[in-house]
Amino acid sequence: MAERNAEAGRGDRDGGRGRSASAGNGLDEEKRGGRGFGRKKVCRFCVEKNAKVDFKDQATLKYFVTERGKIIPRRISGNCARHQRQVAVAVKRARGLALIPYVVISG
């Protein structure tokens, strides 16, 4: 690998494009705020007091399940720990009653 890079005249890892490490999008890390986290996600069940986690409500549960049938983690969905546990139990109950699938077979 080192011979190939030396032959091509590219000793760096950026593929010979001549970019520095901080020239990705023109902003320094201090201006971006670290690692590029966006807005803080809020739990939809805590914000809307009348919204309840219910295993019979497929429309609500579909937002917390991926296309392949996996439960979306808390850091992605933005749920608080309490409601994420309730969502996980509700999804598992709905799967047991065949309201939502365990896995989606695509082919």
Total strand count, please? Answer: 0
Q: Calculate the mean pLDDT score and round it.
A: 80
- Biggest sheet overview: none
Q: Specify Rg, calculated over alpha carbons.
A: 23 Å
Determine the CATH topology of the largest domain: 30s Ribosomal Protein S18
The chain-level structural class is mainly alpha
- How many helices does DSSP assign? 6
Order of SSEs, N→C? Answer: HHHHHH
Distance between the termini: 38 Å
Number of domains: 2
Poorly predicted segments: none
- Share in helix: 25-40%
Question: If classified by CATH, what would the architecture of the largest domain be?
Answer: Irregular
What general form does the structure show? flat
Q: Say which CATH homologous superfamily of the largest domain is assigned.
A: Ribosomal protein S18
The CATH class of the largest domain: Few Secondary Structures
β-sheet strand percentage:
under 5%
